[in-house]
Amino acid sequence: MDKRRYGKTLSACLAGVSNQAIITNVTALLFVPFAGLYGFSLARLGLLTAVNFAAQMCADVFLMFFIDRLSYRALALAASAASAAGLLFYGLVPMLFSGAALYGGIVAATAVFAFAGGMLEVVLSNVADSLPEESSLSICLLHTVYAWAQAVLALALCGCLFFFGAKNWNFAMFALALVPAAAFALLIGAETGDKERKADFKGRKRRMDKADGKNGCARFPATSGGKSRFGVFYLFALAAIFFGYGSEVAMNQWVSTLFSETFAGAGYNAEFFGAAAFAAFLGIGGLFYVRISGKRAKFPFSALIFAALATCVCYVAASGEGAFSFAAALACGLVVGFLSPGIMTASAQNLPRAGGRMLASLAVFADLGAAVLPSAAGALSEIFGLKSSFLLLSAAPLCCALAAAAMRLRKKTPRAPLYSEK
Question: What is the pTM assigned to this prediction?
Answer without folding.
Answer: 0.76
